[in-house]
Amino acid sequence: MGLSSLIVSNNKKHFVVLFTGLVLIFKIALITAANEDSQIYTVHLGKRQHDDPDLVTESHHDILGPLLGSKEASRESMIYSYRHGFSGFAAKLTSSQARELSEHPDVVHVTRSKNMKLTTTRVNDYLGLTPTAPTGLLHETDMGSGVIIGIVDSGVWPDSPSFNDNGLGQIPRRWKGRCVSGEGFKASSCNRKLIGATYYSKGLKEMYNGMLNLTEKDEVMSPLDKIGHGTHCATTAAGSFVQDANYLGLAKGTARGTAPKARIASYKVCWNNIKCFTPDIIKAMDHAIRDGVDVLSLSVGDEIPLGFEVDRDDFAIAAFHAVMKGVPVVAAGGNDGPDTQTISNIAPWIITVAATTMDREFFTPITLGNNITLLGQEGVYTGKEVGFSEIINFEDLTKEDLTAGIAKGKILFSFIRGTLAENFGVAMQKVGAVGLIIAIKPTDSVVTEKADIPVAYVDYELGMDILLYMQTTKKPIAKISPTKTFVGKPSATKVAGFSSRGPNSISPAILKPDIAAPGSGILAAMPSWSGYEFLSGTSMATPIVAGIVALLKQNHPDWSPAAIRSALVTTARQTDPSGEPISAEGSPRKLADPFDYGGGLVNPMKVADPGLVYDMGENEYVHYLCSAGYNNTSISKLLGKIYTCPFPFPSMLDVNLPSITIPYLSKEITITRTVTNVGPVGSVYKAVIQQPQGINLQVSPETLEFSSNTTNRITFTVKVSTTHKANTDYHFGSLTWIDNGGHNVRIPLSVRTRLLHYKI
């Protein structure tokens, strides 16, 4: 696994967002074990059969020992024993041993371990989380002072002022975790804000067969964050108040997390210039459940093709057990957008997060000689203004021209198709250029620049304006000013181009992502000279949602993870806070739909009072597993009890999600949903349908009456048919239950007509 974020350069002069998939600042390399016959496998045994963790571990050796010849051999082979949230272990095995172990009657499945990718001053005000407001979620929860957020990431930089514990009371008594010392990190660094910091490296060490050199990787064997990703995510979720936070003077203001008084527990599983290894991630989640975290936030993701939840996805199984113990798992959707079917973390028990922009942007003014000023929309430059200089077309220059110094003292302009060569700005600076203006398409990649000259990016439309000026002017000139911060109108919210998109590639009837939050240009703490930096990615959106989930957990401790997810989805915005429709970056740009942002942009002003929730528990998740075709044996082991799927198998369309997604509609079907009233007794709701184009929907009953405390759950049906005469793409709509108390319980509808099914 790797960091799910688009990392931003911390060059003192400027930074540029890098679009290269889920990992942005470092490259993930696949490491092949020296002994190919012995690799690390994760063995899942399902629900714990003992309350005593020592007995759970002993049962693991009882399984592995006979295979390897002795318990001593078992102890040498076993890397981790997962014994708190669920039962399982990681061990070094040959492929034949793994196959033999998979036949053991107590084993759910055996998977070869893999690596996963690591996918503020404004954002919370933008969402409406104002700490001075006399009402609202922050006020009602004392800003989250009683909840603990587990951050499973690259560690923590405890010296950041965002981890100050001013004004915080005692650590919650249920906390069972700890701070551990290590290289560059003292256990005493923890306080009433940062209450836990540990690291997990056994899987990583075994992968390198004892040849791991952390010094070469600029890493340390401790909870200390050498990347910055974990620190950034932790302080985005729950950083304390820090005045005058900024990056080189930009976005100056008071930094704070979404739940600024929540406690942070850091679990380091990702390493600088290396990877995040699944056995370490699972052990961290196992410990987090034991330690007493209220929410798990993981800004990590997998690559296509994804692993199946029960057969191949170790992370999804660990998340299942966390959710069954009442701990919501919030995970990044990934940064492989805007391509479709790239969304990761798609299990229906995970809250999967997409990323949007917000109403703060950074523009680099470009003034042409005709006094027209254009705004560069990518990159940040904080150096001195480049005064009016001659602007020339880079495409007109030859290598000989560059060598001869033709570019000296000039601004170079270019249309770029594809990816700009690495260090292009540095190369142009060396031949004397004083600035670069580059026209790009929405899907073009932008590389991190280390040059000291400004590199301003514009779209093709502005690029053509510049080109027209150059071609109609005898000696065209331009100047490039330092980047400025723009807040509020006219910056409308968009789903970020990098944010991975649905539909779900494994189970297309399960809508993913679930929800979206700001994830572009998020300012938070970093282990660097500047103290705070901008990062972009679904990694940054994830802790924002995790912070809101933490506040909800404190406000509604009896709500299940599914009820919390439902509240997020049904109260979400389809317009930004200024009322403008949310679009989706890409080529071409379009209005956002459920595959871009799930229910929409998270709305913390409404989420605590959704009116109705689409709740789910063990029975509903098993319904999903049966409908997905998992066998009774695997499901029984996962649950820790015998279970037999009904026959005929239930329909996946009836999984009680806060959405309806129909990938294959050819004839009339009937879908079932159940809602639970969490609002006033006596509430009456009426259905309002926005029909997808060419799709007929009929809801029954059309009115839901919750007349007493004994009638807080009502089941309704939706008949769906198509008028299309040919196969179509998806069309979108919504079903909203509205009462007189201001509740609008909206779920998205996504329907695709398939008169000819491609699965014959």
From TrEMBL:
Boundaries of each Subtilisin-like protease fibronectin type-III domain copy? Answer: 654-751
Q: Name one Pfam family in it.
A: fn3_6
PROSITE patterns on file: SUBTILASE, SUBTILASE_ASP, SUBTILASE_SER
- Residues the record marks as active site: 153 (charge relay system), 229 (charge relay system), 539 (charge relay system)
SUPFAM superfamilies named among the record's database cross-references: Subtilisin-like
Which family would the database say this protein is a member of? Belongs to the peptidase S8 family.
The keyword Protein biosynthesis is assigned to this record: no
**InterPro entries from the entry?**
Peptidase_S8/S53_dom (IPR000209), Peptidase_S8/S53_dom_sf (IPR036852), Peptidase_S8_Asp-AS (IPR023827), Peptidase_S8_Ser-AS (IPR023828), Peptidase_S8_subtilisin-rel (IPR015500), Peptidases_S8_3 (IPR034197), S8pro/Inhibitor_I9 (IPR010259), S8pro/Inhibitor_I9_sf (IPR037045)
Q: What is this protein called?
A: Subtilisin-like protease SBT3.16
The listed locations are:
Secreted
The Peptidase S8/S53 domain covers which part of the protein? 144-575
User: Which keywords, in A-to-Z order, does the entry hold?
Assistant: Glycoprotein, Hydrolase, Protease, Serine protease, Signal
Q: Which residues form the Inhibitor I9 domain?
A: 41-118
